[in-house]
Amino acid sequence: MSMEIWTEKYRPKTLGDVINQKHVVNALKSWVSEGSIPHILFSGRAGVGKTTVAIALARDLFKDNWEGNFLELNASSERGIDVIRGRIKDFARIKSIGTEFKIIFLDEADSLTPEAQQALRRTMEMYSGSCRFILSCNYSSRLIEPIQSRCAVFRFKELSKEDVLQYIDRIIKNECITAEKEGVEAVYEVSGGDLRKTTNILQAASTLGTVTKDSVYVVSSQAKPKDIEEMLSFAVGGKFKEARKKLYELIVSQGLSGEDVVRSIHRQIFELELPEEAKLKLLELIGEYEYRLNMGSDELIQLEAFLAQVLKTGKSIQ
């Protein structure tokens, strides 16, 4: 089995290799054939291929010279106005190699401060003849309107389960690893369709031998759905002591964080055999307690209080 980092090994190298996102890829291929692109804004959740598509576009446009004509920056770590005035302007001033323009890829551009966004808007205007900007973000609404209006906007869709399972199957065959069907399903459930997370979980689980459901939950530090379902069932059934014991097992024995447990509860609520009205009440509660945890409250106290509320909800429907 290869010791390479699989996220890089299986990252598509060209636009033709990109999984799904055909509405984006087809438009970009058309621009590649013309040899020019406008400023571009990619919007979508993490792990759907925004960075991969940007790099593949640069490879297809510039061929062997792509690295010299492509600058990648992450705005979440370099989010101030100095980055725009410094690194971006310096790169924009340098003559491109074997082409008329270069590409500056700004990942997580929605993390830029308002002042930095205003500076970026002006920079995009000044260097539009020699530079094209590709901006990537999770939330396009956090970018100022003048930047959005200067870009061709592409919204990346969430990958379908079929796409993710085909991708997993390709890695399993290429790496000659064995995986149970339940293990593959668990990889998909835990990753939530994020291909980067999918690849990392699969590589980590494969080091333990056959990829099983249990090994996936071990390497991803996620609560098993069965444990969460059992805890909630105890609470709904009025068995608070047993529910509390299960909670302690998850947090103390398995080492899960309160936020991990909350996210797992959120997913499992929909699987409970409860009236829809009761599920809505639990969703409202989990939102409230997730907020409290984010504000720094003690996770055990808050989750115990949540289980107490679940018990009250269970009694109200009996």
What does this entry look like structurally?
- There is one protein chain.
- With 318 residues, this protein is an alpha/beta fold.
- It has 3 domains: 6-155, P-loop containing nucleotide triphosphate hydrolases (Rossmann fold, 3-Layer(aba) Sandwich), CATH 3.40.50; 161-219, Helicase, Ruva Protein, domain 3 (Orthogonal Bundle); 225-316, Zinc Finger, Delta Prime, domain 3, CATH 1.20.272.10.
- The chain is built from 15 helices and 5 strands.
- It has helices spanning 6-9, 22-34, 50-62, 81-93, 114-126, 145-149, 161-175, 181-191, 195-206, 213-219, 225-236, 240-253, 258-269, 276-294, 299-316; strands at 40-43, 70-74, 102-107, 131-137, 152-155.
- Helix 11 (225-236) runs antiparallel to helix 12 (240-253) and helix 14 (276-294) runs antiparallel to helix 15.
Rg from Cα? 24 Å
CATH-defined fold name of the largest domain: Rossmann fold
Main pleated-sheet profile:
5 strands, parallel
- Corresponding CATH superfamily of the largest domain: P-loop containing nucleotide triphosphate hydrolases
- The number of distinct helices, counting runs of at least 4 residues, comes to 15
Amount of helix: 55-70%
Question: Averaged pLDDT, please?
Answer: 88
3D shape: globular
H and E order: HHEHEHEHEHEHHHHHHHHH
Q: Uncertain runs with pLDDT below 50, 5 residues or more?
A: none
CATH architecture of the largest domain: 3-Layer(aba) Sandwich
Q: What is the number of E strands?
A: 5
Strand order of the largest sheet: 2-3-4-1-5
Distance between the termini: 54 Å
Percent strand equals 5-15%
**The top level CATH class name of the largest domain:** Alpha Beta
